[in-house]
Amino acid sequence: MSISPKRPRIATVWLGGCAGCHMSFLDLDERLFDLAALADVVYSPIADVKEYPENVDIALVEGAVANEDNLELIHRIRERTRILVALGDCGIHGNVTALRNPLGSPAPALRRAYVAGADTNPGIPNESLPALLDQVRPIHEVVPVDAFLPGCPPPADLIHYAVGELLAGRRPDLSGRLKFG
Ligand code: SF4
Fold first, then answer.
1. pLDDT tens digits, 24-53
2. How far is the CA of 23 from the centre of ligand 1 (A)?
3. Phi/psi at 6 (5° precision)
4. Predicted confidence band at 57 (pLDDT cuts at 50, 70, 90)?
5. Which end of the chain is more exposed for a tag (fewer CB within 10 A), N or C?
6. Cβ of residue 57 lying under 6 Å from some atom of ligand 1
């Protein structure tokens, strides 16, 4: 696993997930300062960057591929990133985000959430929102993934270890560290 010889560029991405994996990333607490000393965070939901940049060394991607925006973005990420890491169980196997898959399409869940199960029946939102895919897909089913960090969410210590190894040019050895859920 190689990263650029200059100052490494890191991205964190939020696809179809609950943001819990990013909360775990923020749980690095003061270790975030150590990370900032080693690398630049060039794209993240916690930074005001609109376009996924070129030449990203490491991308931590939370969530599954659930809508058309997720689909377009994950392809762009793959094109522009050396090491793509699936961060958390949703990105790895669908997990919570994919619970609707057995229903065959998003329509029953949308009806339940916005019509049948809602007190005020606001109607199903359909403007300015990306269309949901019929089936939620884990990241590796859409693009190649270089590393997987399981957990719901992955513990901050695991994220810290894995990012440190990747920045050192090593593949993280997760034996004895794996925990789904
Ligand atoms: S893996 Fe868990 S914490 Fe992470 S986005 Fe999915 S549901 Fe949320």
1. 999 999 999 999 999 999 999 988 899 999
2. 10
3. -80, -165
4. very high
5. C
6. no
Asked if residue 153 has its Cβ within 6 Å of ligand 1, the reply is yes
Decide: helix, strand or coil at residue 81.
strand
In this structure, the residue with its CA closest to atom 6 of ligand 1 is 90
The CA radius of gyration of the chain, in Å to the nearest whole number, is: 17
- What is the per-residue pLDDT across 59-113, written as a single tens digit (0 to 9) for each? 999 999 999 999 999 999 999 999 999 999 999 999 999 999 999 999 998 888 8
The label of the residue with tokens 């969410």 reads: 153
d(CA 176, CA 141): 26
pTM over 0.90: yes
Q: Which atom of ligand 1 is the closest one to the Cα of 92?
A: 1
CA distance 97 to 152: 12
Is 154 near ligand 1, meaning CB less than 6 Å away?
no
- Residue 41 contacts residue 11 (beta carbons within 8 Å): yes
